[in-house]
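Hello,

Following up on my earlier ticket. Below are the two sequence lines again, exactly as submitted.
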Amino acid sequence: MEKNEHPAFRAEGLTKLYGSGESRVYALRGVDLEVPRGEMVVLLGPSGSGKSTLLNILGGLDSPTEGRVYFDSWELTAFDDEHLTRFRREYVGFVFQFYNLIPSLTARENVALVTEIAEEPMTPERALELVGLGKRMDHFPAQLSGGEQQRVAIARAIAKQPRVLFCDEPTGALDSKTGIVVLEAIARVNHELGTTAMVITHNAAIAAMADRVLHMADGQIQQTELNSHPCDPHELSW
Amino acid sequence: MLIELLKPLDRKLLRDLWAIKGQALAIAVVIGCGVGMYIMSKGMLISLAETRAAYYERYRFADVWAPVKRAPNALLEQITELPDVRRAETRIRAGVILDVEGAAAPITGEIQSLPKIARPHINDIVLRRGRYPDPIHEEEVLALDAFAEAHGLEPGNHLYGILNGTKKKLTITGIVQSPEYVYAISPGEIVPDKKRFGVLWMNREALANAFDLDGAFNEAVILTSAGSSEEALLERLDQLLKRYGATGAYGRSQQISDQFLTNEIKQLETIGRLLPPIFLLVATFLLNVVVGRLIDTEREQIGLLKAFGYRDRAVALHYLKMIGAITLIGIVIGIILGLWLGQGLARMYQDYFKFPFLLFRAPADVYLLSIGFSLIVAAVGTSSSVVKVMRLEPAVAMVPPPPPDYSRSARWLEMLAPWIDQPSRMILRHLYRWPKRAAMTCIGIAMSMGLLIGSSFSMDAMLYMVDISFNVIDRQDVTVNFVEPRNLRAVQDVLHAPGVLAAEPFRAVPVVLRNGQRTRREAIIGLVPGADLGRLVDTDLQPVPLPRHGIVLSDKLAELLAIRAGEPLRVEIRTGRRPELDVTVAGIVKTFMGTQAYMDLRSLNRLLKEDIAISGTYLLVDPDLTDALYTELKGTPVVAGVSLQEQAQNAFYETLQESLGTFVFFNTLFAGLIAVGVVYNSARISLSERGRELASLRVLGLTRGEVSYILLGELALLTLAALPLGALLGYLLAWTLVQSFDTELFRIPLVVSSSTYGYAALVVVLAAVASGLLVRRRIDRLDLIAVLKTRE
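Thanks for your patience. The regenerated structure is below:
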């Protein structure tokens, strides 16, 4: 990455408060963060540590109570709903824990759903080949295994060639063998397309594949760990 | 808080109900419409029938009327001695032309005699205000309340009457109601016109003097003994009275006021039979869909409850309570609505039918029945879902259901797929995957449209009926009836009256028509050949010439006599020399009102063995000179009655707007509610089932509009598909209504104008759009964050 370029994300003093009065809960307490472009970032932490809230705010799904978020040179926290939708539509890919595929569309069509509205997408076929599903493109979600469904979800997320890929517990519902296949797909996208990837997990083993690991607890980033030699997903085990 | 006193499961019930309050209310309202409509129509039917019976009973409404030309009073004894006669009374009843200050057009009326002492025993009257005439004051009269009110006449006011050719100043002493004029309508008219038809009662002696009927009567009214044969009595009366110029005795079924009343009761019966089931059917469907899907979404909770040890029955009971609560709300809405509508209708009827009292009161069994129907509806609509709750194994229920399999899609759909975008594919596959659900939604919407057409079409049909009757068949502006049949020269006299452009004579002759066992008491109308005002039309509504020989029957009369063209019909003339002979039915013509028989005027007079005589003339009038004509007619002694086409039409339109307009308004409201109920429920349930899917799409960057399209596009498609189906259902409903409204008085043509279809479609589409907007607001507020974490 060249130095004069903006980082993928920059956050300043992010605070997120839920509820009010006695029942108020801090999900984030003044988080400062910089994510360089093209990195593979893993957010690690126990549940309730604020990692999902952070990801939702960076992904334009939620807004902080205080603080600012910049994506490239734009201030996301100043966007209205319409601009946030456009931001997600053009720059962001999402992978969910429970895949969230559309059951009435085939694998190819699930991907096409996104490529139809993107500006410079790859073909659905190419995206599915990238995740190793070139041969199951015309199957409906009900005909695919969990791992396959998650890889369709990754194909759907990367087909628009997003600048960032957000994965919330992508392996949470999968066994370790299938989980690794899914992580390989994410790593491949990160390496081959240069997509910045942020993966949430509570599985510490996954941290070994990241360039940067953010340890979260209590709504704060407790520790940032840089990994000069991230390993290949297939070397992981848990 | 009260809620804390409840068992946990009941608290869940209340909170669940609150959560689906919109949907629950939509269902309850549809049930309520059905219940309300039932209570209204059935209650009104019973109230009307009971009121009529009580009124007739208390004021001794006659069973038989036997008009004659002139018979000695002593004949009463012989009439009373006839078998089956319980009591008889004689009276004088005559046509009269009335002139009230401020009314330009002559008013047709009737005047009846009052016994010298006491009140009439048969057809007694109800004195609303004022007093009975004083026997020594000849000019004192009682007036029918509808007429008096229409002209603002009160006791003490005066009016003029032409009695047997002599104009007399009359003084009103009292305002009355009579069981004979519950529906006060002039003979030959289609709707009552309070202003244009008046009835007076006068001391017998004074009236006898005026009509040269001293010691005589011109009508006997009779109460029959229970279980007697009316037809036999009518025959005996005709035999006894034929020497006195009897025109034919008749029973209640041909008494015009009672005829209309019976007709109205029949219509109420039809409405009560047809419409509530439609609402209840829709409610059944809604309950089926909503409860079915609700239970699907609560699978895990059901499993959990069972895992905790709740018995199958207890869990099922929980859902039964929810269904029961919705139904109960529906019943309460229905009872309130029914009472409200019933009271409104009773008020409208009070204005229309003059009863001394008319209270809307539905007996307990009407309420019980409607409650019973609602419970059946609830049971039928939800039994399958409740059985499903009972059968659900806890272990199975706790595991989320597998994703729905869309792999078995239709080939035609897949061939279409390459040309349409992904969201549209989602819509089509979703519809194909749940065809029953789609069909039910579609049918539900179509039913609301059908209901609209079925109720609004009557306006089209009535307007059409009047247009044909007044502008194609009877085209005269004025009909003048003479006191006595007159020489044909009378036409010439009338032609000289101011403003008369053309005059066409007619003759009306009372007859009894017989074909085998079937008998009808009618009047044959003799028309001049080539008549241009009083015309005949065939079934295609094309004018047809009057055949030179033979008799022409209206289609309804031919149907009642079970006779076809070319067959002989026994005609017994009940006037003059009373000849009886067979006449060939020369043709059948179309009429929408009444049961008419026509003959060539010359043939008719030949039949009567008389010189050409006429009963009256049809006139075409210069509209600028009507006032002068009216003045002339009011002063013409030979004129017994005048009917004015334009005023009759106006009265008809007014009545139509008032009564049918109200009916159409409420049905529009109800049909709109059904449409909203169906569309809103379908949309809400789809949203709750597919909320996660739609929210995922929002996260993926689809805009609110794009996401709404997937859900609402499906409903739009179903609504569009429902439109032709709704048009068809509407036509069928109209057809059914036309069949059951086919009476001697009216035949409503099956005419549904394109504007009625358009109107119905518009209401349905607007209801759908309104429901869509309500749901759209919810789509806009979808929780995107929850989607990332939750599993279905």
